[in-house]
Amino acid sequence: MTVTVIADAVIAGLLLLGGGFALIGSWGLAKLPSLMSRLHGPTKATTLGVGSCLVASVVYFPVHGGVWTAHELLITLFLFITAPISANLIAKAYLHGCHTAPGEQSMMAEGMPDAAENGADWATFGYDDAEEDPLSVPTGAGGKDPSA
Amino acid sequence: MKRLLPHPGLTAMLLLIWMLMLNSFSMGGLLLGAFFAVLIPVYTAAFWPDRPAMRWELPLLRFVLLVIRDIIVANFHVARLILFRRNRDLRPGWLAIPLELHSAEAITLLAGTISLTPGTVSVDISTDGRHLLVHALDVADVNAEIAHIKARYERRLLEIFR
Amino acid sequence: MHLILLALLPFLGAGWLALSPRASRDVHAGIAVAHVVAALGLLIFIAPGVLGGAPDALRLPWVPALGLDLSLRLDGLGLLFAALILGIGLLIVIYARFYLSPRDPMGKFLSLLLLFQGAMLGISLSGNILLLLVFWELTSLSSFLLIGFRSDTADGRQGARMALAVTGGGGLALIGGLLMLGHIAGSYELADVLLRGDIVRASPLYPAALLLILLGCFTKSAQFPFHFWLPHAMAAPTPVSAYLHSATMVKAGVFLLARLWPVLSGSDWWFYLVGTTGLVTMVVGAAIALFKNDLKAILAYSTVSQLGLMTMLFGFGTPAAALAGIFHLLNHSLFKAALFMNAGIVDHEAGTRDIRLLGGLARLMPITTALGTIAAASMAGLPPFGGFLSKEMMLEETVHTAWLGTHWFVPALAVIGAALSVGYSLRFIVHLYFGPRRDSYPAAPHDPPLGLWAPSAVLVALTLLVGLFPAVLTGWLVVPAAADITGGTASGFHPALWHGVTPALVMSVTAVAAGVVLLWRYAPLLRAWAALPLFEAKPVFQAGIERLVRAARWLSDTVHDGSLQRQLALLFLLAVAIGVEGIWYGGYSAGTRELLPAPPIAIIAWSLLMAATAAVALVPRQRFVTLIYISVIGLVVSLAFIHLSAPDLALTQISVETVTILLLLLALNLLPKQPVQLSSNPERVRNLVLGVAGGVTSGLAAWAVMTREPRNPISSFHWANSYSGGGGTNVVNVTLVDFRAFDTFGEIIVLGIAALTIFALLQPAARGVSGQRLRAWIADLPRSPERHPMMFAVAARLLLPLALMVGLYVFLRGHNAPGGGFIAGLIVSIALLMQYMASGFEWADQRRQIDEHALIGFGVIIAALTGVGSLVFGAPLFTSAFGYVSWPIVGKFELATAMLFDIGVALAVIGAVMLALAELSHIAQRAQKEPVEDDGPMDIDPAKLRGARP
Amino acid sequence: MSALIAAPVLLPAFAATLSLLFRRRRRWIGAGVSIGATALLLAIDLVLLGQAATGEIGIYALGDWPAPFGIVLVLDRLAAMMLVLTAALALAVSIHATLTSLDRRGWHFHPLFQFQLLGLNGAFLTGDLFNLFVFFEVLLIASYGLLLHGQGARRLTAGVQYVIVNLVGSTLFLIALGLLYGVTGTLNMADMAVRASALPIGDQGLFRAGGLLLTAVFALKAALLPLHLWLPRAYSGTAPAVAALFAIMTKVGAYAIIRTGPLIFAGAAGRYMIPAALGTMILGFAGFLAARHLRVMTAFGLIGSTAILLVAVAVFQERAMAAALYYLPHTTLAAAFLFLVTDLLIRWRGTEGDAIVVTPGYRGQQVLAALFFAGGIALAGLPPLSGFIGKLLILQATLSSSWWPAIWAAILITSLVAVIGFARAGSTLFWKSSGDAPPSPGTSGARALPLKEAAPAGFLLALMVLLTVAAGPVTAYMEAASHQIFDVADYARAVLPPASGVGS
Amino acid sequence: MIAAALIIAMGCIALAMLLNLFRLFRGPTPADRILALDTLVINSIAFIILIGIQQTTTTYFEAALLLAMVGFVGTAAYCKFLLRGDVVE
Amino acid sequence: MSIEFLVATAIGALTAGGIYLCLRARTFPVVLGLAMLSYAINLFLFAMGRLVVGKPPIYAKGVAVYTDPLPQALVLTAIVISFGMTALALVLALRTFLETGTDQVDGTPDPDLLDRENRT
Ligand code: NA
Ligand code: NA
């Protein structure tokens, strides 16, 4: 009995935690001022939000369903692999958009550093010493980019 | 052996995943899973050339546990930031982290770790592969933060990816 | 059997001629003559029996369902007609042999002529009115080819088309008329129909049937106002004119009037329609003939007039008039064929047919003149020729005919007509043969060789003999024919040159005198005629056709304007209308099913969907953003499926969604991203209204069904038999791979074909216009230089094996839990596609180790073979089998053939998806013609940059 | 019943995949497989026709699941007739396409062709409405591929419209199916017929809407006003040989109406179909007369003559249906024949393509002219080809309809329009020589047609002659088929096993 | 206890989804919309798990698993489009 | 508010949006419209089995209440087919655009492309 009660309490707590963090993450998404800041919000939804729900599920099924499940761990694994990449790509897309849309130099305002030595630039913008100006459009569909 | 088991670690991981998916243990399931776990790496080997050497044992496990701990802690920290800090009081900042890690895999793992811990997001890598660009939601001292990340994560990863 | 041979002989001849185009002219003529002679001989052989009062008949079933039998019947009327067709036909063939120039394709000409002859003969032999229709239409078609034989001249082509349009149109009316007639009579057998005149005339359909049949007859026989085609058919070579417009084609209409006389005549309808038309035609045709200058035109209008005469006689509806009509039919055939031949000779030898350029030929062409004069005298109705006799009989009949109560009207007009015909006949004689000799004819006229004048000489001799000994020479032929027309024994055929002074004689003399006056005062008359406001029919007809074509073009171009929007709008409108109609007429009551309460999250998901839907529709110019909204819709729909107990659907929806978005993005890259707005505001309002109407209809329909209790759906069987009969607990999957495996079989084929078609579409895209456009294409988005970001590439290579493992798992468990071949195939495809995205097409494509075409092929074959395999075990196709096998160590597991089927599904899906996306993804690169190098899986490889790796 | 019933579906599946797998080898293998399989298909279909002619309805329960729960194939006279017609047409077209190298002007001609056959045959055989949908999709998507075969701007723009319109049609098909299932709880045609008769009043509106919508979708395929607008552009845009095969596609729509109308929906759509068909007829032949290109002309002729078929169908009465059934193969063959002749004309004419304009030095093309003349006779419905008998049958049978004056007027007048149109086109193409000027070399490049290439067209012509000569037995077969179509009880008895819990 | 927690958690998720909706429409950059969609997918995964717990069934987990996988592919494709135009090159 | 209402209105909205897009003048929105219509149809077809919460059609002995599995199987087939069709329509639209330079459904010249070609 007590095991069940404790388990239920744990489950309930995890559920509340999960729901709460998912909400906070989305709140951040809605509230924070720029995309780069907003990007931090959903990380919570991904990690603790979904994670807590998954753990709650892992605990719940042996207690109430009579079965062990471990799918949740797999979901977590997938999310943990993919979420950083998603964030990375979204950030890159955003930076690229700022960089190539004149007037919207928001990331400069946030003080983005140079990519340090050797005249290297960030990959999204390309090489500083490259012959290509990232603002110019390349010629031809799928043509060779100098940076490639 | 190398051709049959190109990625032993991957094979083990796949088998584990298989058993997790099956959700019940049976000898038949295990054998079938083992079969697939051997087969798939053979097929996909071509997609993963030049794998860096990696230590799969304790350091990795320790690293994972550390990251999970950090994730939980950072979550509460960032939740506070989001809920109670006004937007204009936030101190977002860019970190250009100089890298000692060599391999793409290691750097990706580092970047992933940084992203998974709330408050920081890995954004880009420099064209020479020597710097990682990270954005932080609220950072008081950029250099301290860089040093923190390098000490906490990159150092451990350097142990794993020798 | 004789009848069949008789009917076939001309066709056999035509076929033979058509198949031997290289033979010489004489051989061609020989073949034709032989066939016509044979037919004529056969006819003569049959004739005694027929004339003895025993019609020859033969009936072979052909289309019983229609009442159309191969029923041939030769009675007196048919015999007379057949004899004319064959007899004059023989002369025409001989004449044509000498008439046609060596450049003309003799074989083709005679072949068509015999074809036409066969059709005419068929009309005279038909014992079934539908069979008669068949031959009737054949005469229209073959005469079209004959009239258009001189197709290099505009006159020839136009004349042929006009003849076809008019007689073909009449033929179509005739179809209607005869069908109605047969319908009323209850039989299409001529013998039956002829007996049911009373029933027919009493039917309410009678006037309609009569009108339609008469339309057929009048057009064919060139009755006013359908007479105009005939003169223009004169563009044909003269043998054709001589044949078609004397004895055959134009007589067909008169023949049919005679043929159906017992059924159709004897009513006011008949009298006023037929009699009046004939009367008017007779006068009008003769009047026009008087003022024509082309010899063949004169003859053509005279033919119109003479046909009017015959029509009028049949229209009178009395046996005596019918007798006169059939007698005149015979006479007219003789002299008119001779005259046409004569005109042909003149044309041939003098080089023109314009009567104004001719005259005075009597000295130069004595034989021609003699023959022409006699024939024309017969046409004028002068004694002692055949034409005189039948004209006398006609005049006699008019005296007894009252028209709307007046007794003078018909005789008076008849005299006018007769006078006019005397006038044009005399003019033909006088202006052509006599008068002063001219100094300049277009050619040097002289009498033709024997072969050219002998055929007409035969006819002229006959017309003279008939005039002299009418009863002896024609009685045996005309009387039975007349008896067959009137359906009794013909009485009172007493043609003689002298009957005493009868009203007819008085009228005749008056007509001749008037005719002489007409010729005497020809010049002032011509001026008066020229002053009349007459119009030429041909331009009117052609303008009519042009107007018809223009109207058709306007209609067609207006309706078929190529607007897809209009088509779709109509389709949607129709669908909505159908919904309304169905409820309106069908009956509707509200459902009683208990509804499910909606939790808040469902409402929020719903509002997400509604908002996204509205956004997709309302901001279509931001195409990229639109796609994101589409993704939201897909996501919510998937969630709905999960919430509403459809996990398989959710899995499918989720995976299909992703592939679709990939496709859309790939395509959007090359399409305009923010195109200008094209639709006008009214259009958008229309679209909105239609959209809302469609939405309301479909929503209400869904609501109506969801709120009522299901009616014992067949799926209860599927539920009950899924595990016991199909070996799986996932009923949806068992349905797919077992109960309804045939659907799934079709479904993977659809997918396979889609991929093959996409491949076939995109393969040539790098070439030609499209290739140029691709090469000249300017990316309309600024592009980041990095093609393959490092983190993505690294993650993708880790995800690939994981995803493959998941795919296998989802596949294997599909039979018992959500999953299955299709979803597994999509998962594997997506996993592979991820590599393409992360590391580039070239890099991934070199490593994929699959041939998509073969995958599709093998997938379909495996599925099909699984289906066929059950035959080996004596079970019906697509029967599944499953069993539980127990192996040591491994334990117990299930083996099911349905899984094999599912493998086929999975393979086909992978093949199709990969083929389509791979092909689409590097279409632009291929256009560059320089292969993109394999530059590694990621652009920035730190290890490589630091030299740690080679 | 033997598994032979399924052969018309499975054989093309194997043939298609084989020619797909052999695509990298010599290309004649693909053509050989395709033509051979089509010939074999024709033989099999003839055997099936023999079986169906006995009057017994052949049932084949796929997967051994009884109707209405599984999918059954049903072979009755109607289905057998459609199968034979399709195979015969396909044989001519596949040989024609190979002879004229059409199959080499793009990818995957033969696999697509065989898949097209698969879809057609499946649609004719299935006794299940959703399965009918699936096979409709198979035949449609294969038709997209075939329509686009060879490509080019004109074909592509035509293809876009064709594809989109048919996709919307498929959407409506599904809505109709859903409604019908939602109301009746079954998908099997026979079972639905049985359940429909027992439907409570309150459900009948939905059922009716579903039935009408389904009929509208079929009418879309059959190109019935106002849903015919897609056809002219599509059929005149594609390769004529493909269009020849597509002559059967409009008949699939007609077939589906014939199948489901009397069986399930009791001819509810008839009252709308008759005026629609009359309008289609007028528009079809107006377009026919208006056409400036032979392909357009033939496409409109196909619309018009299919409308004649549909008007007889729409009477939903046994005799008229029998007439329609006789006319169905005729109109299919006639339009296909004319498309093939058009293709030959385009091939051997030179630069003018199929434009109805004068070609220098083209008067001597006797064979083509004769073929064209025959095509005209066929499409206009004149003797001595089968169209005449077909029209007589239809005129005769529609007398029982209250619409008969309009029907008669429309059929007869449009026939005249067809005659005029053909005479105009033919005299321009084959009679007129351009201003009597000697043909200047280079402007046309017309060459004489090799007889070999005319063989497939000749085959179709021979079939029409056969249809005429054997009109007696053929009409008898069609009458029996029509009787079978209207004998709902017999159909239900044959399809549904006696023990099954049919209906609610 | 669990039931109540579930309801609260679901309510949170629902609210989170609404907030995602806001960002989705508000933008302003395309990247914002992609981020909103990505978050929506994550929240959906949570929602699916909650439904699984609510109904005590594991039937829906594959859907969540699949969503985790393909959601990423979608996001990556959108970003790739913004970065390069060409999703696969 | 009932789930049935939500589903019915969703079907209605998707249909309306789909029709609205299908009636546009360019191929791309038309393809999107077709995609939306197919969502609507899938939901519609699915709804024809009536809505049931929490009873997925996984067979278990003695279970009497279940979701009608047949519409689900039909929708699965329909999803796959409409995916293939949409893909084909999309590629065709693209291919036609490349060949003709216009993405207008009626094949009329495209102002956008002219504009763009003039620019270069
Ligand atoms: Na993060
Ligand atoms: Na499944």
UniProtKB/TrEMBL annotation, chain B:
Superkingdom to which the source organism belongs: Bacteria
Protein name: Na(+)/H(+) antiporter subunit E
Gene Ontology CC: plasma membrane
Protein family according to the UniProt entry: Belongs to the CPA3 antiporters (TC 2.A.63) subunit E family.
Membrane-topology annotation of the record: Multi-pass membrane protein
One GO MF term attached to the UniProt entry: monoatomic cation transmembrane transporter activity
Name of one Pfam family that matches: MNHE
NCBIfam families found in the cross-reference section: PRK08965.1-2 (NF006518)
Main location: membrane
UniProt keyword Ion transport present: no
Keyword Zinc: no
Location of this chain's protein in the cell: Cell membrane
Entry keywords, A to Z: Cell membrane, Membrane, Transmembrane, Transmembrane helix
Species this protein is from: Sphingomonas dokdonensis
Membrane-spanning segments: 12-40, 60-83
Chain's gene name: mrpE
From TrEMBL, chain D:
Annotated GO biological process: ATP synthesis coupled electron transport
Principal subcellular localization: membrane
Transmembrane segments: 31-50, 57-75, 81-102, 123-147, 159-184, 205-231, 237-258, 270-290, 296-316, 323-346, 366-390, 402-423, 457-477
Keywords noted in UniProt: Cell membrane, Membrane, Transmembrane, Transmembrane helix
Membrane topology according to the record: Multi-pass membrane protein
Domain NADH:quinone oxidoreductase/Mrp antiporter transmembrane: 127-411
Family the UniProt entry places it in: Belongs to the CPA3 antiporters (TC 2.A.63) subunit D family.
Protein's UniProt name: Na(+)/H(+) antiporter subunit D
TrEMBL record, chain E:
Matching InterPro entries: MrpF/PhaF-like
MF term (GO), any: sodium:proton antiporter activity
Record keyword Membrane present: yes
Lineage of the species this protein comes from: Bacteria, Pseudomonadati, Pseudomonadota, Alphaproteobacteria, Sphingomonadales
This protein's name: Na(+)/H(+) antiporter subunit F
Listed GO CC annotations: plasma membrane
Stretches assigned to coiled coil: none
Alphabetic keyword roster: Antiport, Cell membrane, Ion transport, Membrane, Transmembrane, Transmembrane helix, Transport
Intracellular or extracellular location(s): Cell membrane
Membrane-crossing segments per the record: 6-22, 34-53, 59-83
Membrane topology, record value: Multi-pass membrane protein
Key word Membrane present: yes
Domain of life: Bacteria
Automatic annotation (TrEMBL), chain F:
Ranges annotated as spanning the membrane: 6-23, 30-53, 73-94
Keywords assigned: Cell membrane, Membrane, Transmembrane, Transmembrane helix
Localisation: Cell membrane
Domain of life: Bacteria
Stored Pfam families: Oxidored_q2 (PF00420)
InterPro entries: CPA3_antiporter_subunitC, NUOK/Mnh_C1-like
Gene Ontology CC terms, in alphabetical order: plasma membrane
Membrane topology, record value: Multi-pass membrane protein
Keyword Membrane: yes
PANTHER family, per database record: ANTIPORTER SUBUNIT MNHC2-RELATED
Family: Belongs to the CPA3 antiporters (TC 2.A.63) subunit C family.
Protein's UniProt name: Na(+)/H(+) antiporter subunit C1
Lineage: Bacteria, Pseudomonadati, Pseudomonadota, Alphaproteobacteria, Sphingomonadales
Gene transcribed to yield this protein: mnhC1
